[in-house]
Amino acid sequence: MNKQNNSKKLPQSYWLASTPTTNYPTLNEDIDVDVVIIGGGLAGISCAYLLQKENLNIAVLESDHICQGATAHTTAKITSQHGLIYDKIKTQAGKEFAKQYAHANESAIHKIKEIIEDNQIDCDYISQPAFVYTQREKYIQQIENEVKTASSLGIKASYVEEIPFNMSIKAAIRFDNQAQFHPRKYVLSLASIIHDNNVRIFENSRAVDIEKDNNYVITTEKGNKVRAKKVIITSQYPFYNKHGMYFARVFPKRSYIVGIKAKEKYPGGMYVNEEDPTRSLRSQNTEDGELILVVGANHTTGQSDNTDESYQELISFANSIFTIEDIPYKWSTQDYITLDGVPYIGNYTSNTPDMYVATGFQKWGMTNSMVSAMILRDLIVKGESKWQNVYNPSRKNIISSAKNFVVENLNVAEHLLKGKLSSLPKNIDIEPGEGKIIKIDGERIGAYRDEEGMLHLVNTTCPHMGCELNWNSAEKSWDCPCHGSRFTYEGEIIEGPSIKPLKFSNDVNTIEKLFKDDY
Ligand code: FES
User: Is 408 inside any structural domain?
Assistant: First the structure.
């Protein structure tokens, strides 16, 4: 399998472009630790940071390089304002759960600030207000309710009727004392600190199996073993399918970001609307001046007919409120959504006492990562956390979103079948730069022709659980509509849960090798 550098083939985020690549070693021996953390993003590194203060022997296993996934593609808003969530949780599960969620996220904002100050981390941290606004009459009441509920939970929230852009709105909710930062500057500094404190960080060390004897035994792609008393999975989508049924409880959404230079100065603050299509804004000071991040155009992964249009939508929106002078960056990101809108943080299942998970951060990964670290540190060290009930992955009482559950699972089931039954074109009429599904000798094949004219063929059956992949024209990737695995046009994994690449060939005359082994 050709190994390719994804960063050369995917649009690069400003966060990646403005920071160095890391170079931690690959695990090439068997080791014993107290805690192994699978996933080296913000959640994993934050867990390691808090746990190393408890004198535990810790290893972090990262399948690629640390902080290259969701954390490197986020908008990096450090906020307890997660859409209009508080009134929803209060209605679904009661005021006590809403209070836990608010307290956890407000504490996360303070904890991140404290870590930055304690360690003097230079990561462009700025305090900012955050706003959710609406341009539709029907959301005014919801915003009023949210102001009332959030205020009753101790959050500094207020109702406003204007935001400082050239757009008319119906209402907005403002949270004060929120913040923004450069997520990679923060995580890379934190990684360096924990590494100096004897946390072992391994890159290019994908975990592919977990077994339990006296301890947990994690096997990596290269066959090395990590024996650990405790396992934490923070790999965005939990790849481990033997327990927990996470494949039926979290689903992927993609969204897009354009980084623009505008004639106008950005007025400050962080903004997101309540309605569809999502539009979100923040700015970032860079060496080349102010960059405005315009975010949105969300869709379920692998289920958009024309992903290129997503960037165009955002550029049109940006044009409506700014005079665009340049668009130096565009990239996309993937988030995982839970059934009830609250992340799963805690024991992997009620029957796996020493295995933990943190996933389904919706689009609010900065505070929820720190919440994960605080909850999992407390569960491991003290056996309990004051916020464990609202985030409990096995919770029953908060799952009132039966509608979502049915819709999303029907959606997955439909995609398991739909791809197999699609009728496909019979020739290989593909222009340079184009990708599509073709049918050769009765088999469904993903084909992409590069700018030099070379054809790249993959077997489009997802190695995770067998859904059929779709072409993502904006990212030039093969995306799975079921649980969000993504692959390059040469079949390499961009993101899991799949732990296997796609079968790949450059030769139309040897396509039978794409179908040789069953997954
Ligand atoms: Fe689960 Fe593709 S990611 S089937």
Answer: no
Whether pLDDT at 518 is above 60: no
Q: Is 460 in the pocket of ligand 1 (CB under 6 A)?
A: no
Cα 335 to ligand 1 centre (Å): 15
Q: Is residue 9 part of a domain?
A: no
CATH number, domain of 205, equals 3.50.50.60
Which is the closest atom of ligand 1 to the Cα of 462? 2
- C-alpha 464 to ligand 1 mean position (Å): 5
The H or E element spanning position 179 is: strand 171-180
User: Could you tell me the two tokens for 284?
Assistant: 């970032």
316 plus 347 within the same structural domain = no
Q: 429 and 475: one domain? A: yes
Residue 195 · residue 25 · CB < 8 Å: no
Nearest atom of ligand 1 to the alpha carbon of 483: 3
Residues 352 and 213 in one domain: yes
For the chain, the 3-state helix, strand and coil shares in percent, each to the nearest 5, are 30, 30, 40
The yes-or-no verdict on residue 10 having pLDDT over 60 is no
483 pocket-lining for ligand 1 (C-beta < 6 Å): yes
User: Residue 397's pLDDT is what?
Assistant: 56
The reply to whether ligand 1 has any atom less than 6 angstroms from the CB of 485 is yes
Does the residue 463 lie in any domain? yes
pLDDT digits (tens, 9 = 90+) for 387-433: 999 999 998 754 444 344 444 554 555 555 555 545 545 456 788 88
Q: Which domain holds residue 470?
A: 422-515
Confirm if 318 and 329 have CB atoms less than 8 A apart. no
Last residue of a domain, which of 312, 337, 362? 337
Clarify whether residues 478 and 363 are in a common domain. no
Is the CB–ligand 1 distance for residue 465 below 6 Å? yes
DSSP assignment string, 117-129: HHHT--S--EEEE
Decide: 69 in ligand 1 pocket, CB within 6 A: no
The CB of 467 under 6 Å from ligand 1? The reply is: yes
* pTM, 2 dp: 0.85
> Quick one: 428 and 290 in the same domain?
no
Domain count, the chain: 3
Q: Are residues 235 and 278 in the same domain?
A: no
What is the distance between the alpha carbons of residues 256 and 475, in angstroms, rounded to a whole number?
10
Alpha-helical regions (H) of 53-182: 85-93, 95-119, 140-152
- Residue 498 near ligand 1, beta carbon < 6 Å: yes
